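Supplementary Text 2. Reproducibility record for the structural model of the 269-residue chain.

All settings were left at their defaults, and a single model was retained for analysis rather than an ensemble. We include the record here because the model underlies the residue-level annotations in Supplementary Table 4.
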Amino acid sequence: MTDTPGIVITGGSGKMGQMLINTVLASDKCRLVGVVDRAGHDWIGQDVGTAMGGQPVGVTVTDDALEAFAKAQAVIDFTAPAATVAFAELAAQARAVHVIGTTGLTDDDLAAINAAARHAVVVRAGNMSLGVNLLVKLTQKVAAALDEDFDIEVIEAHHHHKVDAPSGTALMLGEAAAEGRGVDLKDVRDSGRDGITGARKRGDIGFSAIRGGDIVGEHDVMFAAPGERIVLRHLATDRAIFARGALKAALWGQDKAPGEYDMMDVLGL
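Retained model, structure tokens:
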């Protein structure tokens, strides 16, 4: 046996799943012990290395998450809300760290994940990159320093396959801006402009979403007042930054008490 943590990747056949698999395989700080995909997928029953077009790595893709999680110390999960909620319960049963990069989660989904976090470590973030989490902290500080003469707009762009909007990262930034201003984002969020909407309401935090091509992720936070604008920006050009952050979170969570954490905790911000 080895003391390095065993990692399971869910949604292994997706672009992010494959990036995560390669990141774990390249690390000397952990082991790939399982890959989970949906029932009926062509990869089920295949060695994941072969399925990805390379050499066998000794890990067979399965649709039995419970069996896979039982061998793991951590689960890295960038899938879909319904799947993530189910995985949260199973990861908690296995007492495995559950790293969640899934976006589009509802309040009910978050409540279920919070319940699972009473029994195991959950690290959940709309974005796992160091740069984005620094941007979140800067957004909070700038919002706290400026009054409502400055309108706040979060502008995000992603590839045309992304199914949720605003992005999880955009919502992180909006929450940070709201926290800086001492308000609840639910009370000031404006993300549905279309047609004759009337003038912008003072104090609202707006969201604009762009979808096109193969954009990995671009996020601007604009503070706009008469005569001046401040723009904070992060551009992601490689999904590997998210995979590296997720693996860092999985390793960080190994000695932590059950509870729900985020990347600010992981990075000490």
